[in-house]
Amino acid sequence: MPTVAPPAAANVLELIGGTPAIFLDRLGSGVPGRVLLKLESANPGGSVKDRVAARCIADAEARGELRPGRPVVELTSGNMGIGLAIACAVKGYRLVAVMSSGNSSERRQQLAAYGAEVVLVPQAAGGVPGKVTGADLALVEARTRELVRELDGWRPDQFANPSNTSAHEATTGPELWAQARTEGGPLRAFVAIVGTGGTFVGVARALKVREPTIRCLAVEPVGASVLAGRPITNPGHKLQGAGYAFVPPAWQPSLCDGTVAIGDEEATATARELARREGVLGGFSTGANVAAALRLAREVEAGAVIATIACDTGLRYLSTDLYG
Ligand SMILES: Cc1ncc(COP(=O)(O)O)c(C=O)c1O
After folding, report:
1. Which helix (H) or strand (E) is 188 found in, with range?
2. Which one of the listed residues 38, 49, 131, 208 is annotated catalytic?
3. Looking at the structure, do residues 30 and 77 belong to the same domain, yes or no?
4. 293 CA distance to ligand 1 middle (Å)
């Protein structure tokens, strides 16, 4: 256990980033490669989106687009909203978070706790709670646009905002590179699930500029492997926050060396193992990332490192069947 704590910060935004990483040597025992898991769940808002939210707000302020009194309006599956809610709480902005009713209830509750106004959009006909599809997202998008117009809101628009990828290129990627090099063998691959693609694209850019031979693989739901060019057979998966069955605007195919398709069952089983054997409580997307990383760790030489991301905390899924 470290005996020296970091110095006191001026506010919680200063605590975003610089997240720890651990080797999953219990889950990976008997496998030649080592999986390195970066715990984005350790951010103040519990997810990979804190970095993005803080950077979007700071960049918009610097450009003069966001100023005191202008509300922030955003479409969110929860994690971006929580990151924005933290930044808006510290900086004094009103936040209107628009999300699908298909997302877990903890996400809404947490947003409201930070003082955000949550607008819930009912799922498309036949939608299943806990499974947010592209059709659901289209409805949330339409409502978000209306609210931006009505309120003259500023929209971070995480799918189109370059601050999303640049946050990861400037921070997550270099941190991961340094962590892999200090503690482990050669970093052979990085695997990450894709929602907006910000994490994958930003980290892949940062890694490949340092070592072009690092393989970067995108994780996708089995029934919605659009990046692999496969037909969509089941867009209604459980990997909340990712796998929307469309190619996101930030996507850069040249950075992607391949894809790994993971089903709900494998993601769930891996998240459970991660909690029980490594003591790390992640969500479905974290389970998918670790499952994909373990597959790759079977194919590499002894000691080679496969890095991936714990996208958010499993506490956000207690109302689902993940741990129930
Ligand atoms: C739980 C979870 N996993 C994965 C992702 C995907 O991250 P990205 O949008 O950077 O592709 C998100 C994004 O919101 C998320 O909330």
Report:
1. strand 187-193
2. 49
3. no
4. 17
